[in-house]
Amino acid sequence: MEYHLYHDESKIDGYWHGMLLVPESTKQILFQYLEKIRENTGHSTPIGIKEIKSEGKVFTCAELWVLFAVGAMMSKFGKNKFPISLGRRNKGKIIWDGNYEDIVKVPIGAKFILFRERDNFENMSNILDYGGKVETTFRMGLKGGIHFLGDIDHPIEIIKMHFDGYEHYQRSVDHERIVGRLTGLREYFSITDGIYSINDWTSNHTKKDCQSYEDCQLLQLTDLLVGSFRVAHGYTTNDKKIHVKIAEPVKYLTKKYLEGYARMQNSRWKGSLCMSECFLENGKWNFQSIEYKTKGIKQGNLF
Predict the structure, then answer these.
(1) Separation CA 36–CA 125 (nearest Å)
(2) How many domains does the chain have?
(3) Where are the extended beta strands (E) located within the chain?
(4) In a domain, 296, yes or no
(5) Lowest mean pLDDT: which of 58-67, 175-184, 214-223?
(6) How many Cα atoms are found within 13 Å in the side-chain-facing hemisphere of 10?
(7) What pLDDT does residue 238 have?
């Protein structure tokens, strides 16, 4: 199946890569529902988790985007329903529109890879510039994530990669380091290689040098997801309790993931989520599950 990949990052307690994979065949469906939530909540400007400091239009829009995204990550429907809201109000209060399965009717089949470089590049060689460190660890996370999520019956072909703004790296994304050095791929993982296979224009749809409006929205969603997954692992600050509310649906999915591989294989989110981290020790890369900063994070009642 063909996918678009959207990448954003968080730099709190490590460098967190967030990679959202959206099937080409259902990309328009996901975008349409995100746009409907924008319209119903009355929020039209760019969304980023760092800018959300209190409840209001942007908070409501972000909260419902994350909830819908967790539903969009279902690879199949089960007997339990997944309730969603598209942001409509009745007497000033947000109402539930119904179940995702009855409203959307088809699994969108999005996937998410969360990959953390634990030490924020501190132990990486200074031969690489900042962008090179991002690209190198991105490549490791992507390869491991796709190998984990795909299989011979569910091949993954990435036809376009979207990065949030070349200004973050002080230069354009290095195509060779991202694609050219991505070797040793399993037979079910491929990348369309070409001059237009990577877009690193800004995700801010109010700027002239932005990506398409549709792709800007999906990059902004990736920003919310990587921040939410980070928060779900306990990496947040005391003044950002509002982010814990946004991350509630992600904590629900993270809890399922932590119950083990077998549990996820029997879940509606089979083949939809991969979370891991890496660190350099004695000159060698080590890989492991992401360590929780806060043990026993309280799990809210989502449904």
Answers:
(1) 46
(2) 1
(3) 2-10, 15-23, 83-84, 89-90, 93-94, 98-99, 111-117, 156-163, 189-191, 198-199, 273-281, 284-288
(4) no
(5) 175-184
(6) 26
(7) 62
Tokens of 290: 């992401």
On whether residue 303 sits in a domain, the answer given is no
Written as six digits, the tokens of 11 are 């730099």
Q: Which amino acid is at 88?
A: R
* Average pLDDT value for residue range 54-83: 96
d(CA 137, CA 50): 23
> Could you list the residue range(s) of the whole structural domain that residue 58 is in?
2-288
CB contact at 8 A, 4 and 20: no
Distance CA 295, CA 290 (A): 12
What percent of the chain has a predicted confidence (pLDDT) above 70?
Answer: 96
Which parts of 150-200 fold into alpha helices (H)? 175
Minimal CA–CA distance to 183: which of 169, 172, 195, 193?
Answer: 193
Residues 257 and 83: beta-carbon distance below 8 Å: no
Within 8 A by CB and 6+ apart from 7, the residues are: 17, 18, 19, 20, 138, 161, 162, 163, 164, 222
Q: Other C-beta atoms within 10 Å of 15: how many? A: 23
